[in-house]
Structure formats: structure tokens, C-alpha cells
Amino acid sequence: MWHYGQADGFDVGYHFRKAVAHLIDKTHIVNDFLQGYGRAGLVPMSPNNVRFYNASLIGYDFNTTAASAEMDLAHADAVWLAANGGPPEAVAWFTKDPGTGYYILPGIGPTEFNLWCPKADYDPVKANSCALITYEMRRFGVNVRTVSTSTTGLINIITWHEYDMYVFGWTVSDYDPDYLFDFLHSSRAASGHNYGGFNDGLMDAVLDSSRREMNATRRADLFKWAQGIVLDKLPYDTLYFKTNIESTNQGRFIGWKPLHGTVWNFWSLLNIRPPTGMRLYVSIESSSAVTAGESAAVTIKVRDQDGNPVDGALVHATVTPEWAGNLSAGGGPAGNDITATASLGKLVLTYTAPSVDGIYNVTITATATYPQFQEVPESSKSFVIAVYPAAAKFLGVTIRFLDTDIVPTSDTIWFEVSITDSEGFPVQSLQATALTDPPIETPYGISPSRWNDTATSSLRFRAPPGRSLASNQTPVVLTINVGSRDEGTGNASAVFLVLRLFKTCPDGVQVPTDEECSSQLGAGSYTLVAIVTIVSVGAAAIVSLAVEEWSRRRNVGGGKR
Known about the structure:
By secondary structure, the chain is α+β, with helices and mostly antiparallel strands. It is built from nine helices and 29 strands. A five-stranded mixed sheet has the order 3-2-4-29-5. A hairpin with a 5-residue loop joins strand 25 and strand 26 (510-512).
């Protein structure tokens, strides 16, 4: 913008584009607009494309001081241009107009120009990103405004090159980065996807070489070089890559292969197959609270889909935040990231809390793997422990599954709840309540839901019938809240699964196991249906801020500054 080059190849907009890059708060866009389901972008290539992505690139931080420094450099370039055959008015470019307070830009001065964006009802993330970028640019002194238009209207504006700036997105479904040729080669400016009219001699040479190079390693290096040119010249500024969330019915087919941010690809079609039913489940049991500097036992249990212990499963356990204490297994080395083997489906770890002044929540995550279960060989579970400062009064609550944390519909599981004070002694004078989310109406659900003056209590959960459940796999959160007049309060939660199992009737129809076949005859074939979610930050969407030069009649030259 203002622009890639004039007839003499001088890129007077080089530093202006860098200044704009420093005015885009990508972290805010990802954390607030995407709610963390994405990652900030640098160039139009996903970081998930590990073979071709240039991981050495360093982007432009959100920094108005750095933006001001770039505008100073842009002004110095414009002054040089005015003294070397350029337009005399260039001596004022990229300085602030004393009357309006906005920067004087080539061709338009301090006049307002447009940032074209999709409407919020089409894509609220892009619309909010436009509003944020406009706000920061105007606050900095660039007289820009957001103009929202329909998707069709925006595509037409981009295709006809009738824009100043725009925000839009692409889905790139090809793993091979040859699509960069269409995005960035000058031969694709007139008719192609090089909508910004980027014309850079070095970029053309690199992309031409990538199409001739037969050595895979050298070809990858050429595309990494091209990404470096993009980050430097900024014909596109990639805002973010969305997290692509897809679900598959593991009860019907397994073996999906995530590729390019999706499971819907050729390799999945080659690999999917009906399941055999072997699945892995992990659970965590520990006290809900611990005193700073003290330790607590953390029991990790690994079971199969029938609740049987899985011997030899590998357990990877982590503590977050990283500073929030350590784990150790069997007297071994301690750390916030350890791996150990579960013997007979059970692994007991020791968590040691750090010294803290306030109350902090620490998350322990256990991921169990067992490759012999090819369909679902991995399972994760997290547990939160509250760390209290020394001398603080609190109640610690431990929920133990007496048998399993998996219950079929119309069946029953049992829990044991233990309540201790801050020194680890049982508490007698207390009041406790138990509830589940989602709530289950009587005669099903948790029982008892209230009790007094008992440090240890056995609870029973009776699962509802299959016909009352909307899902074949329903996570249920059991929460225990306790209070004591002398010892404070405490709470703990545990997650278990209610599974709707199916049987095949003689006529071939599948019904829940706790229901009768229409023929009233029994059947013996059971199918467990589960949902697995595959999450990948892939090339599902590439959102770019692109810029076009103001003077359409001028010849767009090379990349010389």
C-alpha cells in the first residue's frame, strides 16, 4: 500500500505496512474473539504444515512505539524520493497534518479511507477484528474507517481491485505450498489470486525456482524463503488460524486420520473401519485441597470400557502452571512433567505443593496410553487441587470410585467421600451436599444428597434409562460441597460417564440394552457408541490483511525500497 512500487521500483509504503503490522493486537483477537480456539498468524501458511512452515520467523509485536519508528523511516524514504525525482509533495508524506492530527498518506493526504470487512452476521470474529484494527489505527493517527459489506460484495471489490485495505479469509486445503505462487507471483496479479498486485522480483525468482526444484529439501527451503519475503514486504498480514473442531462417531467407524486440519481426507477413507470395542479410560483421585509446602497422594486409575484394570498402561502426568508444584512416582525424581507405568491399572503419585501466600488452583492432568487398544489408545483427565497458605483453615474432599467411573444406563456405581481438615484429620462436625450436572430426577441420580457429621460416606449413583438420554456418552459431574463451623469449607468434583449401550434385535434393529426388542426376543450383540473430538490448529482458515496501492494507473514495480 502506498505502494509496492512506482515506475522506478521505489516501495514508498514499505515502512507504513510495517507500522500497521505493529498496530494489530493478534493476541487479543485470538484470546478474546476466538476464545482461545486458534493461534496468531504470521504468513499465509499454517504452522501445522511442519515440513514447509518457516518456524524461525519472528512477527511484529503489538507496539505503538515501534509503529512510530516505522513511520519515521517511511517519512525519511519519502523525503529521499522527493529529492530524487519523485513528487515534491512527498516531503510531507507520513507526517501528521497539523489541522486534523492524521498522518498524510501518498495520494490522499489525511483524508479518510476504507478498511473493507465482512458483516458481523457472516463472521463476527472478522468483523470484531476489523473494529479493533480500525480503533488502534485511528488512535495512532491513521484516518481509516471500517466498511462492512456482504460476502459477495467484498469478493467483487477484491476481484476488481477496488479497495484500500480489506480483511477476509481463505481455506487452503492443499498440503503443498505451491498455492503461494497464485497468491504472490506477479504473473497472477492481473488474473489470479494475487489480489494485492504484489510485484517483487525476488519473490518471483524464488517461486519460479520452487516449480523447477526436484530435491524435496531444497524445495522446502525455497518456500521458507518465500515466507520470509512475505513477512518482510507484508503484501498479506495473516491475522490468525482457527482451531478446527470435528467429531466422529467412534461407535460406527474408527481410524480417522487428521490431515490439513480435518479428518475428511483421502487417508481417512483408506483407514476407517468398524471398531472392535476396546477403549481406554483414565480417572484421578486426590484430596481437593492441600497446605502450601505439604504433599498429597494422587491416584490414577486406568480401565477399559468394561471397567477392568489395564496393566502396563503408560501415564503422562503434568502440573500446571509449571511453577505450581511437583509430582513424583515411587520415590523417583520429582518434576511438573513425569511419565510412569500403571501396574494393574493403578499408579499412585505424590504431589508436593509450592509455598504460596494466597489460594491457588493447580491442575493435574493425566494422559494414559495403551497402544494395544488401537481404536481409542489414549485417554486424558484433569483434576484441580486448591493450594492454601500455611495456617489457613479449609476442608479437603476426596472422591473415590469404589469400582469404576463408567456406568451403563439403568445401572449403579458407588463412591466413597472422605473429608479431612487442613492437617489431614477426619472432620466430624460438618454439613455436606452432593449434586450432579446434569441433574438427574429421582428415583435416579445421587443418593444421599445431604448428610451431617460424617467424615466418610458412601454415595450411590443410579443411571437413568437409555431412552431419557440425548447422547450415547453422557459425562456427569459429581460435586461435593462441605462446610464446618470451626474448620472452614471445601468442595471437590469428579467426572464419570453414563453410557448408552445397544443390542441388536433379531430383526437387525438396534435398541438400548435396557429396552426390549419389538419382537420381545433377546439378542446378544452389543455396540458401544462414543464420540471423540479431534482438535487441530490447521489451515482451516487463513485470514489476511492485504493492502493495495492508491493509484491504479501507475505501473507496479519491483521490491526495491
